[in-house]
Amino acid sequence: xxxxxxxxxxxxxxxxxxxxxxxxxxxxxxxxxxxxxxxxxxxxxxxxxxxxxxxxxxxxxxxxxxxxxxxxxxxxxxxxxxxxxxxxxxxxxxxxxxxxxxxxxxxxxxxxxxxxxxxxxxxxxxxxxxxxxxxx
Length: 136
Known about the structure:
This protein is mostly helical. The chain has one domain (3-135): N-utilizing Substance Protein B Homolog, Chain A, CATH 1.10.940. The chain is 77% helix and 0% strand. The chain has helices at residues 3-21, 25-37, 43-58, 60-70, 81-96, 102-116, 121-135. The radius of gyration is 14 Å and the shape is globular. 38% of the residues are buried.
């Protein structure tokens, strides 16, 4: 598994836990940074996970607007928390990270949705991110 794939999982953990607990995302990121300081062997995945979460914090309104616009009749607060987090990661990568090809951002989000969410989540995440990518 690549360091970026591990980083996406780590970012998913941060986003999901903050969402479910109702914690401020910046506070959750700071707590994870403390844990990461004690795990030098996982530094490569931590750096990209932090970049993802920082980007989502900075662009949250724009990212959520993209998700809402392209999710077709699904309100953001009614989506499973895992799907919501994965969509935020995918939209951030599509719109803000030129180092990650769009197809890779979509595929990684879909694979994580298949692994961690509902049976229908992979198709849902793919559909939303594909529409975001077409409009970008």
